[in-house]
Amino acid sequence: MRPTTGADALERLYGADVPPFALLRRQRPGLREPAPVELLFGEMETVRSLAEAAVPDGGAPGPGLLALLPFRQLAEHGLPCHDDGTPLRLLRVREHHVLSEDAFTGGLPAAPPPVEWRDAGFTTSDAQYEELVREFVASDAARGGLNVLLRRDWSARLPEFRPAVAVELFRRLLAAESGAYWTFVVHTGGPRPVTLVGATPQGHVGVEGGRVVMNPLCGTYRRPPEGSRPEDLLAFLADPKETEELATTVDAELAVLCRLAGPGVRVEGPFLREMAHLLHTQCRISGPAAAGARETLDRALFASTVVGSPFAEACAAVHGRETTGRGYYGGLLALIGRDGAGAEELDSAAVIRTLVVDHRGGARLSVGATVGGRSSPEGEAAETRTKARAVLTALTERPRSADPARTPPAPAPPDPDDLDEAVREALAGRHAALSPFWTRGAAAPPTGGPAVLVLDPGGAAGTELAALLHLVTAVHGRAEVVRHDDPGAAGALVRHPGPVLVASGPGRPDDPGCGRMAALRRTAALLVRGRPPGGPPVAGVGLGFQLLALAALPDARVVARSGGAGLARQVDFFGRPVTAAFRNTCRIVCGRDRHELVTLDEPGVRGVQFRPESVLTTDGAGVLRRLLG
Questions:
Q1: Does the N terminus or the C terminus of the chain have fewer Cβ atoms within 10 A?
Q2: Following DSSP, what letter does each residue of 131-181 receive, concatenated?
Q3: How does strand 344-350 pair with strand 182-187?
Q4: Cis preceding-peptide flag for 612 (omega within 30 of 0)
Q5: Residue 207's closest CA among 128, 138, 291?
Q6: pLDDT tens across 510-535, in order?
Q7: pLDDT (tens digit, 9 = 90+) per residue, 588-599?
Q8: 294, 317 in Cβ contact below 8 A?
Q9: Closest by alpha carbon to 263, among 475, 59, 64?
Q10: Strands (E), 289-418
Q11: pTM score of the predicted model
């Protein structure tokens, strides 16, 4: 399977019986020149799980398989989603052809096939989508810091659709959209083929050079037709809603990455990702890979940007508010292969900004907006229209040149050195506001001494603990986790000779109808009263802080959090100011004046209401070091 540079393979895309194939242009972040076009041929198969997506040892360098993962794959991880039966498909690559963009366009027919669109439009009105957004914004979940991507669908019919039409749509995307991470066509072949055509800005997880890499992207600026002005970009970069959306997404992706990587995780950015009609902010996070490509991919499902955060709660919110399955929208395309040294490589992209066409020519384009407590229903509806328009403009309008070989290329993304100085300073300021622990990397962790015993309070917390554990290990050394429902958990925590940390999680600590919370309140009371005097401290963050405060302070009360939940704000942390990230659905008040309690410093018991592991908490390592003594 040796890569070639010839264009003769393109002729096979115009025959009567076109085999399964994929066309890809993968424009990696930081790559200044246009990436080549890759043409893959192979056998398509339907499998039950990613366990069957293995690349044989000793294979030739290059891609070995392309996986199409539907959104319903979430069910394999015990998360709620509508099961619409969309299959998990694998393209086993038998041929891999590499062409420059000029060679690709020059090898296409001079007269491209016509593309006819019928019955096109959104399946729900703006008013219906705005009401969906309005209902979520008013919910307790949104006030508690939950962000959710809510979708809407655009549909049409392509009565004369065939693979050659998909190739023409791919050419149009190449000419019109320069900033996509992946521009692609995937055609499944067979008697009832499905074809995906898209230009997604969102990479997900990759393995390259021994490091696992993710590129969380969030925040959307709708570019005017005349182009972006520096003052508009400055307003976008200074918008607290956009800033917090990206930081929340980075936090969610860190929780995934820290399960896949060893010590040495780094956060870079934010950067601008310019597309033809939109501009996004994104970061790059990476760390030493701790698993192979397939296992990394399986453990990283799916991108929080296509669901929301916290991830498990967002899945439940999507399931409750969307009435149908997502098909491949929100899923992944993943390319697994080997590099020149024989090591596994992985590159994947979220299936967004993608037209899915069935064997009858029925087409669907799904788009969504990330909705949170600060969202404007009208603004989020406008964002979905812009995202749809960005794809549809490229797909429905032929480039001006009638000769595909002479179609002018789309302008490349701007070089950072050409950006207005004030915009560069704004990006640098956004970077400087992130936690130095994540942006500069951590020193070697301490060794020796007893481990920190971390209590996982259950619910969805198990999927969110990895970043906190990474921080604990960096500042203290070993960390061990005990679940709240493990037999003997309370006794083990009380007897533990080292520090104990009660982690954060979902739920209200005084909920009288929740058995999990009742058990956690009993455990917190034992920790406050049963630990040896003068021994290592008991500490709590988020929900853990709330449970310990209720057990240690007779006048502590829980109240619903109103306004500002999920946001970063400056607080006093034992005599010094700290910018802290709050992602809790309730708060603790004390005293007759019911003042809010954000720190706890009682004999042997410490805690903070905020999340030290967040990229928005400016000295999370120092906070945790102080808590653990």
A1: C
A2: HHHHHHHTSHHHHTT-EEEEEEEEEEE-TT--HHHHHHHHHHHHHH----S
A3: unpaired
A4: no
A5: 291
A6: 988 889 999 999 999 999 998 888 88
A7: 999 888 899 999
A8: no
A9: 475
A10: 308-309, 332-338, 344-350, 354-357, 362-371
A11: 0.84
